[in-house]
Amino acid sequence: MNLKSWMGVAAALLATSLAEAKPLRVLCYNLRYITSGDKGERAWTARRDQAAELIKSDAADIVGIQEGLPQMLNDLLDRVPGYAVIGVGREDGIDQGEYSAILVNTRRFRIQESGTFWLSDTPGVPNSRTWGNQVTRICTWAKLYDREAKQTLHFYNTHLDHESPEARKKGTELILSRIAARQPAGPVILTGDLNAREEDPLHAAIKAAGLADVWRAVHPEATAEQSETIHQFTGATTGARIDYIYASPDFKAVDAEVIRSSKNGNYPSDHYPVRATVKIED
After folding, report:
1. How do beta strands 62-66 and 24-30 pair?
2. In a designed cystine with 66, which of 21, 53, 97, 193 is the match (CB 3.0 to 4.6 A)?
3. What is the pLDDT of residues 160-196, one digit of tens each?
4. Cα 245 to Cα 16, 63, 130, 157, distances in angstroms
5. How would you class 174 by CB atoms within 10 Å of its CB: exposed for 0-12, middle for 13-18, buried for 19 or more?
6. Which domains are delineated in the chain?
7. What is the pTM of this model?
8. For the residues of the chain, what is the DSSP string, one character each?
9. What is the pLDDT of residue 13?
């Protein structure tokens, strides 16, 4: 067989591999941090089994976690084997404070690189904040090899500030600049509690950078009630949509859902997790 024939066979095998790769299931999941104000069924110890079961039953491949504390992440790993946690505490760059963690299904992915940067003028300095936000904000990223698709992808997860529009704007700009500089410049997913409704200009900036809102791609006519993601443990649909999953054009949107499951009227978090199912385009 000559070189041209071998190249044709290789291309056909690659196309077949991509076509047969299982879709990628992504969750964006604000866990609700541990606080003494949450008592009874709202306490983390009462919610952790349900929170873990949601991840397990959903068969998530990657989970972008917000408000995760070390105890919470350890509790999830104890209950949902087969995942690795990527991330650090935002207060010291080790284990103090909330994580914007990434949970990775290690059966599907090999972690090639990862890191965390602070949303400030000094992104390499732990606990830094310079844009008017009183709370430290971070973004955690990972470069992952997908054994299913036989391709590398990048994943970014963040929790933008809840008070300062300037901090949200500049934080988004910093994240997008890091995404633009990724190597290789292939498939990328961004998840986060962005603390910003759909009309916030930061979403226009994300879309201008070439990322698509997977929920809107699948449900372009969804109402505010159908799209809402925060409910304060009430199960209501009158809050706001602030939790998002964005994906590069390398991905085809297959499905998306705001998961509103509960057990005996109790919810695993004050946010509804958001799921996106995507597939790498051939």
Report:
1. parallel
2. 193
3. 999 999 999 999 999 999 999 999 999 999 999 999 9
4. 27, 11, 26, 9
5. buried
6. 23-280 (3.60.10.10)
7. 0.93
8. --HHHHHHHHHHHHHHHHHHSPPEEEEEEE-----TT--GGGSHHHHHHHHHHHHHHHT-SEEEEESB-HHHHHHHHHHSTTEEEE---TTTSSSSS-B--EEEETTTEEEEEEEEEESSSSTTSTT---SS-SS--EEEEEEEEETTTTEEEEEEEEE--SS-HHHHHHHHHHHHHHHHT-SS---EEEEEE----TTSHHHHHHHHTT-EEHHHHH-TT--HHHH--B-TTTT-S-S---EEEEE-TTEEEEEEEE----BTTB-S-SB--EEEEEEE--
9. 45
Quote the tokens at residue 272.
């509804």
Q: Token pair of 126, please? A: 């732990």
Q: How is residue 28 written in tokens?
A: 């964006």
Low-confidence ranges of the chain (pLDDT < 50): 1, 3, 6-7, 9-10, 13-14, 16-19
Which tokens go with 138? 């971070």
User: What are the CA-CA distances from residue 200 to residues 105, 192, 266, 272 (Å)?
Assistant: 32, 15, 31, 20
